[in-house]
Amino acid sequence: MTFVSKMKQAFAWYDEVLQFPHRAEIKRELREEDDLFHLLCFSELLGLPNPVSYYTLELYPEMIENFHEWHLRMGMEKSPLDNIRCC
Amino acid sequence: MPGIVLALIGMVVFALGYRYYSKFIAERIYRLDPNFRTPAHEFNDGVDFVPTKKSIVWAHHFTSVAGAAPILGPAIAVYWGWLPAFLWVVLGTVFAAGVHDFGSLVLSVRNKGQSIGTIAEKLIGRRAKLLFLFIILILVLMVNAVFAWVIANLFVTFPASVLSIFIQIPLALIIGIYIHRKTKSMLLPSIVALVIMYGSAVLASEIPALQIDLVQYFGGEGATFVFGMDAVSLAFLIWIGILMIYVYIASTLPVWRLLQPRDYINAQQLVIGLIILYAGLFITNPTVTAPATRTVDDVSWLPLLFITVACGAISGFHSLVSSGTSSKQLNNEKDARVVGYLGAVGEGVLALISIIAVVTLFSSANEFTAAYSSFNVANADGLTNFIMGAGVLASGLGIPEGIAQTIVAVIVISFAATTLDTAVRLMRYIISEIAAEYKAYALTKKHVATSIAVGSSALLVIMPGDDRGFGAGGYLLWPLFGTSNQLLAGIALLLITIWLRRLGRNYLVTLIPMIFLLVMTMYAMILQITTEWLFTRPDGDLLLFVLGSIIFVFAAWICIEAITLFKNEKPRRDLDV
Questions:
Q1: B115 and B325 in contact (C-beta within 8 Å)?
Q2: pLDDT tens digits, one per residue of B509-540
């Protein structure tokens, strides 16, 4: 292992140590932001009119993975929405 | 005697403690099992439970527990001479703190990574959980009051440090926004932030116009300003007000925006501070000028020493860190020894340098005795003495003493601010939890709970006064902080003892420190509330009397719980072995 790669490894370790204390809380906060974003995108499915549905429809392929993770996290093994067949 | 000798003796004892005593405990008492499936593996969710390398969990444990408190306590406790403080820090770390941190970590790992509060409910009952919550509440209340006073005091004493501290806030905000949602490292931006902070500290030390010295603005010490208040009182009041507004905002903002980058920068300051101080110690080789022991006529070292030095010898706050975060991240149960025991030793190392910095500062024993003329003076000036002493040590590295003092003041204030931020946030959660227990749902709301936390802390720091005026008596609360911290450690040790007893193992290693702590805290509180704080005396203090009495009742409550539990041992509940 070269000196440079050793140093890189040491810095990565140091960085991980300093990020560690807030890691879980930040992941949770980011997840909540994502959930809110999902709600905004899928609001019509809940009966809330969505003025930008034309645009959010374009996000569908981007969001399908996240949606799948979300319903698993919420304790639903299969997709709760008939028209989204992620699994 | 050279200060290096103290450092070396301390280090050797710590090393022996880790090598032999912690090994004995790991193998014979806690019986760590490398094949045990830790909660990090069992409940791995990528968020709270993540198997993490032991070096990282250890470093996290160390940076979370090392702060301003292990510096302040020993700097006050040398009042009775260096020997009692030195022995308590070294032996307390080896036989009490290490066992406590290590034990609470193992207990939590063996109980699905649950926090000490939840384990208390499981082992003893709901009453124990409430008792636990109230003690944490009183502890964080003390922390807020004491550290708000500490920061205000350092702002008044070292006005050159103010600029750097206030520059850190926008720098942290910028880093927070820059890093958010990106996988970039915070290392480089935080180093740039540190350079800017220390650069401004150097500039402010050299250019008086950059020093934000409120006392001078109000006409200097002794000058009377508005409403008959003198300049120092007013400066304290304004700083405490500003700090309270700051902590309110900091504890309600999302954590990534301000707290994470600030903690990141501050953790680096801990590393820098320790390196500078120990390197400075070995280069300057100062002589210990303070007396080894000293007879004083105001307060006896027994039992006050054991509550003056809480963090640095043993601290209940560590059990919250052990069971709150560290236990959920442990990759292998065997790592608990390194994380828990060595984490406590890390804090002992910080407390040790605090003692050395103070006892080598003065040119003679007489000068030391004059600076530590009474226990109240020691409480008020302990931290300032540490900063002066640390400045002398740092000057060994070629840093001019004035600049070194400003930088050390910046480091200590940053630690205190981190503690304050965390404690206010913690207090908010506890108020919500207690309110939910009693179905007072209005109090569980973020802004309501934070307002109560900040409001009560501000009141507590401003209320006790001494002859120096309004707000300047916040240090009077320090013994109460130490006591509540020791009580928390007492509960954690009680839980570990019950656990060991139910498993049929030798529980003396936790029972003895527990009894010692409870006896010392109760003795200290009885002594204080019947003498110094007794409100019927002309110089007594009703507030301290009430707080001291509450803490005494809590301590007695824990003792009764412990005795009843030991007498009527119930069959094992759903405890893992």
A1: no
A2: 999 999 999 999 889 888 888 887 888 877 77
Instruction: List the single residue in A with minimal CA-CA distance to B258.
Output: A22
Measuring CA to CA, how many Å separate B27 from each of B22, B95, B505? 9, 16, 12
Instruction: Calculate mean pLDDT across residues B194-205.
Output: 92
Helices B3-16, B343-359: axis angle to 10 degrees equals 170
Half-sphere exposure at residue B28, Cβ-oriented, CA atoms within 13 angstroms: 10
Spell out which residues of chain A touch residue B56, defining contact as CB-CB under 8 Å. Answer: 13, 16-17, 20
- Residues in A 55-84 with any Cβ partner in B closer than 8 A: none
A12 vs B contacts (CB less than 8 Å) = 185
Q: What is the pTM of this model?
A: 0.87
Nearest to B358 by CA among B348, B368, B344: B368
Query: How far is the alpha carbon of A40 from chain B, nearest alpha carbon, in Å?
Result: 19
Q: Which residues face B469 on adjacent strands?
A: B466
Nearest-angstrom CA–CA distance, B248 and B468? 28
What per-residue confidence (pLDDT) applies to B570? 56
Q: What is the pLDDT of residue B422?
A: 81
Of all residues in chain B, the one with the smallest CA distance to A69 is B45
Q: pLDDT tens across A30-44, in order?
A: 888 888 888 888 787
Hey, where are the domains in chain B?
A: 3-567
Instruction: Say yes or no: domain B3-567 is CATH 1.10.4160.
Output: yes
